[in-house]
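Q: What would this chain look like folded?
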Amino acid sequence: MAKSSVGGSMVWSRLDWHTPVFLNLPGAADPEPILAVDEASEFLANRWPAEKTAAYWEAANLCRRCIHGQVGPLEARDALVAAAEEAGIHMAA
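A: My prediction, written as structure tokens:
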């Protein structure tokens, strides 16, 4: 889960991104928001709409490593953005 409410205030998980990645996927009416590393990992594993290039595998690897505490979430986020750019997947602002 990206965030939860504790005592009326929002608490961010250590795997959340404070700036979501919005992917404009083929055939989708609205951009797909990716809010956290676990969502990115699931998206890469199960819903990636493009060829699985070296940048894709790097993003998938960094997401797994982040989940296991080996790298930070921003490194995984940057890798997802790089994979999307390489695949020609447009990102919404």
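The helical segments are 37-46, 54-67, 73-87.
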